[in-house]
Each structure stands twice: as C-alpha cells, then as structure tokens.
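Thread amino acids onto this structure.
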C-alpha cells in the first residue's frame, strides 16, 4: 500500500525559508522517480523538482538555485528545502510519484 504524507507547509515572509517533508511507504526510492509539484489558485499544476531513482535531480527554471530536493532513504522521507521564498511560490505543494500523490501542504509567502 503506497502512501505519501507531506508536512512542513507554513506561512512565511518573502526571503524566508521552509523545508517540506514527504514520508512515504510502500515503495523504494531507488525504484521510483519522485518529485514535488505545486498548484496555486487558478493555475495549472507545476512540476517543481524531481529526483530519479539513481539520485539525479531536475528543477523547474523558476526555483533553480533556491530549492533543493533531497531524500533520506533510511527514513523513507523526501525533502524540499526552499530558500529565498517569493510570493510567486505560494501554492499547495504535493509530493508525487508517477502514480501516487500525497494530500498536499500549503505554503504561503507574503
């Protein structure tokens, strides 16, 4: 049974930082591509960062240099470190594989 549970969303001021966590069960990081997507009100869902099973990463242009995706295999947890946050980063952030999605966590930057 695959489960993805995000946490860490909060309200912060511009320039601040947050770290999102996604604890998963039911699969192995090494066997899956997994990433963070976000959706702001009225916008389409946007893939923000992705980590392949081999650990390679990719980011959407708007977060390069500010966001870092990482994982802790022992804790079955995926992270998204977000620095230098902007108001445009306000969205619900989802942890997802190709097949499964978490429930999302709200990030608000003002």
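Threaded sequence (110 positions):
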């Amino acid at each position: 049974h695959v489960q993805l549970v995000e946490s860490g969303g909060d309200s912060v001021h511009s320039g601040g930082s947050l770290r999102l966590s996604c604890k998963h069960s039911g699969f192995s990081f090494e066997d899956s591509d997994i990433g963070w997507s976000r959706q702001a009100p009225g916008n389409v869902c946007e893939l923000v960062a992705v980590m392949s099973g081999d650990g390679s990463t990719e980011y959407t242009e708007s977060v390069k240099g500010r966001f870092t995706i990482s994982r802790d295999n022992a804790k079955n947890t995926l992270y998204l470190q977000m620095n230098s946050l902007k108001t445009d980063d306000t969205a619900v952030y989802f942890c997802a594989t190709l097949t499964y999605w978490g429930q999302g966590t709200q990030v608000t930057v003002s």
